[in-house]
Design brief:
- The protein has 140 residues and is α+β, with helices and mostly antiparallel strands.
- It has one domain: 3-Layer(aba) Sandwich (Endonuclease, Chain A).
- The protein is built from 4 helices and 4 strands.
- A 4-stranded mixed beta sheet has the order 1-2-3-4, sandwiched between helices.
- The longest helix is centred in the C-terminal third of the chain and has 24 residues.
- The protein is globular, with a radius of gyration of 17 Å.
- Belongs to the Vsr family.
- This is DNA mismatch endonuclease.
Length: 140
C-alpha cells in the first residue's frame, strides 16, 4: 500500500468523506438565497479556462461566492492546528489560503466581485451581504 498522508486509516476515511460541494453551510446559504428570490449557479467556474470553482455564482452580475470551511481555509476565529501530522496540515491550510488569495485576484482582475463567507457565519447576515452586492442600495 502506498504511503498515506493520513495519520491513520480512520483519519483517512474521515477526511475522504468531507464533501467538496453541497456542504451543510452551503446548503443553508443557498436555501436562504433561494427563499429571497435569487437564482444562481452552483459549483461553477466563474471564468472559463480557469480551474477555480465558486460555490455560488451570479454570472450576469459577475459575483462569485465562496463558502469557506474554518479548518480548511484557516479561519482567524476558529482555526486550530491539528495535533497529529501538524506540519502537513499547517502547510495544507497555508496553501489553501494562498490559492484563495490568488483566486480572488484572478476574479477581481477579470471584473468580478468576490464574496467569502465563513461556514460559521450567520446565514441571514451572509445572505444580506450577497443581496447588497447584487442589488446595491437594498436593505435586504
Amino acid at each position: 500500500m502506498a504511503e498515506s498522508w493520513a495519520s491513520s486509516e480512520a483519519v483517512r476515511r474521515s477526511m475522504k468523506s468531507n464533501r467538496s460541494r453541497d456542504t451543510g453551510p452551503e446548503l443553508r446559504l443557498r436555501s436562504e438565497l433561494h427563499r429571497r428570490g435569487l437564482r444562481y449557479f452552483v459549483d461553477r467556474a466563474p471564468i472559463k479556462g480557469v480551474r477555480r470553482r465558486a460555490d455560488v455564482v451570479f454570472p450576469r452580475k459577475k459575483i462569485a461566492v465562496f463558502v469557506d470551511g474554518c479548518f480548511w481555509h484557516g479561519c482567524p476565529e476558529h482555526f486550530t492546528v491539528a495535533k497529529t501530522n501538524a506540519e502537513y496540515w499547517a502547510a495544507k491550510v497555508e496553501a489553501n489560503r494562498a490559492r484563495d488569495r490568488d483566486t480572488d485576484r484572478l476574479l477581481i482582475d477579470a471584473g468580478w466581485t468576490v464574496l467569502r463567507v465563513w461556514e460559521h457565519e450567520d446565514v441571514e447576515g451572509a445572505a444580506d451581504r450577497i443581496v447588497r452586492a447584487i442589488r446595491p442600495g437594498s436593505e435586504r
